[in-house]
Design a protein that fits this description.
The complex is a heterotrimer.
Chain A: H1 2-27, H2 36-54, H3 58-87, H4 91-116, E1 129-132, E2 135-138, H5 139-161, H6 163-173, H7 175-180, H8 185-207, H9 218-232, H10 237-258, H11 263-277
Antiparallel strand pairs in A: 1-2
Helix pairs in contact in A: 1-5, 1-8, 1-9, 1-10, 2-3, 2-4, 2-8, 2-9, 3-4, 3-8, 5-6, 5-8, 6-8, 9-10, 10-11
Chain B: H1 2-18, E1 22-32, H2 39-45, H3 47-59, E2 63-65, E3 68-78, H4 83-95, E4 101-103, H5 108-120, E5 125-127, H6 135-141, E6 145-147, H7 152-168, E7 175-181, H8 184-199, E8 203-210, H9 218-227, E9 231-235, H10 238-251, E10 257-260, H11 267-273, E11 281-283, H12 291-304, H13 312-330, H14 335-344, E12 347-349, E13 352-354, E14 364-371, E15 374-381
Parallel strand pairs in B: 1-3, 1-4, 5-6, 7-8, 7-9, 9-10, 10-11
Antiparallel strand pairs in B: 2-3, 11-14, 12-13, 14-15
Helix pairs in contact in B: 3-12, 3-13, 4-5, 7-8, 9-10, 13-14
Chain C: H1 2-20, H2 22-25, H3 28-54, H4 61-78, H5 83-104, H6 110-136, E1 141-142, H7 149-172, H8 174-184, H9 186-191, H10 196-222, E2 224-225, H11 227-230, H12 233-246, H13 253-271, H14 276-290, H15 294-309
Antiparallel strand pairs in C: 1-2
Helix pairs in contact in C: 1-7, 3-7, 3-8, 3-10, 3-12, 3-13, 4-5, 4-6, 4-10, 5-10, 7-8, 7-10, 12-13, 13-14
The chains are: A mainly alpha, B alpha/beta, C mainly alpha.
Chain lengths: ~290, ~400, ~300
């Protein structure tokens, strides 16, 4: 039982890392980013490549990834996505455009990754057992969980108790109204998108220490991230964290008690059930 | 495009220096994944060997086809691990590029999906990365299709004989923990293993599947550990073969026999885990002490910059050698004649002398083991140099 | 309105008849592309049946397509049944499945609907793999038939025509009218007394039925069925993207989306063998920026311009 809880929570940490970034991107910048998983794999590639070619610790890579991915994502938003935001008259039109554009973007990123490393990012870091409350787990998963928790708490505090954070939340609620009260909506959106991409890339670097990735695996994470964001409610960091928690514990529980063959099916089942009873996600607000 | 012209340029330079007289080229088509889920395996086993063979053949001025030296012009495509895409590209090779010969695809499903097309145009297909129990039915339907890497049953038999030996030696009991990935090949192997293992009196005390892309295999490993079995068998795919080994290390799985299927033989497996995976068993194997294999592995490293994997790499290269010797031996590019030549003759390859009975070559490794940094063959069919199985002794 | 509707139908009939001769003109590669075009035309048109008027983006195509492929694979490989009986069974199962999904999604809207259908499709994919693993215990699903590309092309052409006809009839019926109101404003639709639930479920069911039929027809082409392949979520995305590129406002939108999309795709595949995915991505972005309203939007712009000039 304690095994399920601990393994489950650690897995939740991974899921939270995967989903928090997308939630910022979709919730605030209104970009349904299908290239989210590929950005994650880019972070993983950085960690793998630096570790195997120059023995750089993935922890150091995480620090290096932050400015690079922030700038990269900011550029993507500013030059690739802003024209789409400007030309779309409705939220629906922007959704369609951003699905098409970021799908293309995901192909481009896969192409870049493959040209650097077409095989598996096989390396191990901090793959050491550690005992927590009598349950064995690995140090790298624990580390990812702690970083996820740190990011989650920092984001929550920043969004709720700082001026720029409040502006971000305002944009999440309504772009029109925020514009009227003098918030620089394009700037806030760009920052939110870049920050989201950064969290995802950092997550990728950490995840690569315990999951062997390759160029094609981005879509797996995109799917998971979409599920978690929607399950928690769009624009709600709390929702994403709790949804990640539920998925992690349910998957581990089913794998341990019922059948590992049903882990992913059960995760999707939970998602489906939650939406059946709460069509706007756990924390989402009713729009109609 | 660029690569093709670079190759052409390189061969032109070589031709000029070796002053061999070459009039024609042999167009060779190859379709395998460079992206998508199977790409990670194809860039280890398939693509480097094609590159190696083409460069080697062209470096000596090409193949001698009835007195004329012909260089190889390689036309390659990325099927993105998508069957629909693969079929279309195969049609392109046959009807647009009009290639003379093809390299058989990577993956069981892709070989079977492209067999009707290649069959229609008479291309001999020497399949390597394709393992099935339906060899007879398939080769009856597609007489141009050859299999070289063994059958599902043979792979399970290899593992079974190790289990029986170790049970007789007292290293393991009757109990086995077995897991498999819930995807085509994993399901097939597990299904066969269930039948063969229980027939020998083994009890599969933990028998579970896990879905493709499971992010956390720790519950699986904890379950296997709690079962108390001294033998762990995993019919796994590349990403999860890595994941299972990692969890076994974390949980300090106490077994004497540990086996995981595909990708255990990849050099990356050893690079990632180092000495911890010493004595891990896996699908495949090779005999690195065989001078031919040693020479091949050296050339592979030199030309492709990558260490060859310890399983299907050598078979993939051998399949190309068969094609080479058949074209030279038949002294023609006529595919019907070449196909018949493949059926009728024995070929001298890095895997030893290979020949086909009913389109099936019965020479292959089925189980190998990591022993001090080298993955050596321990079980196989018609192969020399099998070493004794060692017991797994901790994960240090 | 009525006259242009008939005009459209006549055009469709002419194009269909011309298309039917494609296998006589093309063979090998180009016929293969024809099969691909027909497959995506059928899938995207059936997608537009529901998503066009309602603006609900469904990512469940792979679930229906997969059901068709998997039923044919299991039936023919493990139970020795005939292709035709499995084709019929796929249609029934696809329709029932779609009706259930339709019922489940009634309360959802916007992005929640989109991701719900995706999650449900993934759940089905995992369940099918699990069932195959534990209860069917298959030695691989082989679909070995004597169908050639011509046969599959014609079967898919017939399917596409049926979808188009169904769509055309619906658009002229009360149901079609209801759907357009739902797409405009669902609350209004409810207030004017339209049974929105019923209308949505019926349309979604047709989408599922045809999706499964297409999957069943494609199975002999793939010859070897792996659940994770036939249920691949990539297919759902492709269908949506091709339909959107064409323009989902018109029933013929997918046709003008699918053909250029696949032609560009194959051109890139053939000419950039080592970086096809990267070049495809770039091509994709270009299309999105150059054609804000899809190909249909572009064509209608041109049409309007020509009218103004003449």
């Amino acid at each position: 039982m304690i095994d399920i809880l601990i393994s489950g929570l650690l897995l939740s940490g991974t899921y939270a890392l995967v989903a928090m970034g997308l939630n910022l991107q979709y919730g605030v910048a209104r970009i349904m980013n299908l290239a989210n998983g590929e950005v994650l794999v880019l972070g993983a590639l950085a960690a793998f490549w630096l570790y195997t070619t120059s023995q750089v610790s993935p922890l150091l890579t995480v620090i290096l990834v932050i400015p690079v991915s922030f700038t990269g994502n900011w550029i993507i938003y500013r030059f690739l996505l802003t024209p789409l935001v400007k030309r779309s008259k409705t939220q629906g039109a922007l959704e369609v455009d951003s699905i098409l554009a970021t799908f293309g973007l995901s192909f481009i990123i896969i192409g870049i990754i493959v040209s650097i490393e077409g095989g598996f990012f096989a390396y191990k870091y901090l793959s050491e057992p550690i005992r927590i409350l009598g349950s064995t787990t690995s140090l790298n998963r624990l580390l990812a969980f702690l970083v996820a928790a740190l990011i989650g708490v920092a984001l929550y505090l920043w969004l709720n108790f700082s001026r720029p954070g409040v502006a971000v939340r305002a944009v999440a609620v309504s772009t029109e109204a925020s514009g009227l009260v003098g918030i620089n909506v394009p700037r806030v959106s760009a920052i939110a998108f870049a920050l989201g991409g950064t969290i995802t890339a950092v997550g990728g670097a950490l995840i690569s220490t315990f999951i062997t990735l390759d160029a094609s695996m981005g879509v797996v994470f995109t799917l998971k991230a979409l599920i978690i964001v929607i399950m928690g409610g769009v624009g709600e960091i709390r929702g994403s964290i709790i949804a990640a928690g539920i998925l992690g514990v349910v998957e581990t529980g089913v794998a341990t008690l019922v059948d590992p063959g049903l882990t992913l099916a059960s995760a999707y089942l939970i998602f489906v059930l939650i939406l059946l009873f709460r069509p706007q996600g756990l924390f989402g607000k009713h729009t109609t | 495009m660029i690569r093709r012209s670079v190759l052409a340029l390189a061969s032109a330079v070589i031709l000029a220096t070796t002053s061999a007289f070459a009039e024609g080229v042999i167009k060779l088509g190859a379709i395998s994944p460079k992206t998508g889920p199977l790409a990670g395996g194809a860039v280890v086993t398939q693509w480097p060997n094609i590159q190696l063979w083409v460069e080697q053949v062209n470096a000596v001025g090409g193949l001698n086809v009835g007195g004329e030296m012909m260089t190889i012009d390689l036309i390659e495509y990325d099927d993105k691990t998508n069957p629909g895409e693969h079929i279309k590209l195969a049609q392109r090779l046959a009807t647009q590029d009009k290639v003379d010969f093809v390299v058989a695809p990577y993956g069981t499903g892709f070989n079977i999906a492209s067999a009707p097309i290649y069959g229609k145009f008479g291309y001999p297909m020497i399949a390597v990365s394709a393992i099935t129990d339906k060899v007879d039915e398939l080769t009856g339907r597609y007489p141009n299709l050859f299999f070289t890497l063994g059958t599902t049953t043979a792979f399970v038999e290899g593992v079974k004989s190790i289990l029986m030996e170790q049970r007789d030696a007292g290293a393991i009991g009757n109990e086995i923990a077995m897991v498999n990935v819930a995807d085509a090949f994993g399901i097939e192997l597990a299904d066969k293993a269930r039948e063969l293992f229980t027939a020998e009196g083994f009890k599969i005390v933990y028998d579970k599947s896990y879905p493709l892309g499971t992010p956390d295999l720790s519950p699986v490993m904890k379950g296997a550990k709690d079962s108390g079995a001294k033998a762990f068998i995993a019919w796994s795919y590349p990403p999860d073969s890595f994941g299972l080994a990692e969890q076994a290390i974390i949980e300090d799985l106490d077994v004497n026999v540990y086996y995981s299927a595909v990708a255990t033989s990849f050099p990356a497996f050893s690079n990632a885990f180092g000495s911890k995976i010493n004595n891990v068993l896996g699908a495949g194997g090779t005999n690195v002490d065989d001078p031919k294999i040693a020479e091949y592995r050296e050339a592979h490293l030199k030309i492709t910059g990558k260490v060859a994997d310890y399983w299907a790499s050598a078979n993939t290269y051998a399949a190309l050698q068969i094609l080479e010797q058949a074209i030279v031996g038949a002294a023609t590019l006529d595919r019907e004649v070449v196909t018949q030549y493949i059926k009728d003759n024995t070929f001298d390859t890095v895997m030893g002398d290979l020949n086909f009975k009913n389109n099936f070559s019965n020479t292959f490794w089925s189980v190998g083991q990591w022993q001090d940094g080298v993955f050596r063959g321990v079980k196989g069919s018609n192969v020399d140099g099998a070493v004794d199985v060692r017991l797994k002794d901790g994960w240090k | 309105m009525k006259r242009s509707n008939w005009q459209e139908l006549i055009w469709a009939a002419v194009i269909t008849i011309l298309a039917a001769f494609w296998p006589m003109l093309a063979n090998g590669y180009w016929l293969g592309i024809g099969v691909d075009v027909m497959m995506y035309v059928a899938l995207a048109t059936s997608w537009v049946l529901f998503s066009g008027p309602t603006h609900y983006i469904s990512l469940a195509s792979a679930a229906f397509f997969g059901v068709g492929g998997f039923i044919v694979g299991t039936g023919m490989s493990d139970y020795g049944t005939s292709f035709w009986s499995m084709l019929a069974l796929s249609a029934v199962v696809g329709a029932i499945l779609a009706a259930l999904i339709g019922l489940a999604t009634l309360r959802l809207s916007g992005v929640y609907f989109v991701i719900f259908t995706l999650g449900l499709a993934e759940m089905i994919r995992n369940l099918v793999s699990w069932v195959q693993n534990n209860f069917l215990g298959s030695r691989g699903l082989y679909v070995l038939t004597d169908f050639s590309d011509e046969h599959l092309f014609w079967m898919l052409l017939v399917t596409s025509c049926s979808i188009y006809l169904v769509g055309w009839i619906i658009s002229r019926s009360r149901l079609g009218f209801a759907m357009r109101i739902i797409g405009g404003n669902e609350t209004v639709a409810r207030h004017v007394g339209i049974n929105t639930s019923m209308a949505k479920v019926i349309l979604f069911t047709t989408t599922g039925l045809f999706g499964a039929i297409v999957g069943a027809i494609i199975a002999p082409r793939w010859s070897y069925i792996e659940p994770n392949q036939v249920f691949s979520p990539q297919l759902s995305f492709f269908v949506v993207i091709m339909a959107l590129l064409g323009g989902s406002g018109r029933l013929w939108g997918p046709v003008v989306g699918v053909i250029p999309f696949l032609l560009i795709w194959n051109w890139v595949d053939a000419n950039f063998p080592n970086q096809s995915i990267l070049v495809l991505g770039l091509a994709f972005l270009l299309i999105v920026y150059a054609l804000p309203n899809g190909f249909v939007g572009r064509i209608e712009d041109l049409h309007n311009k020509m009218k103004r000039h003449s």
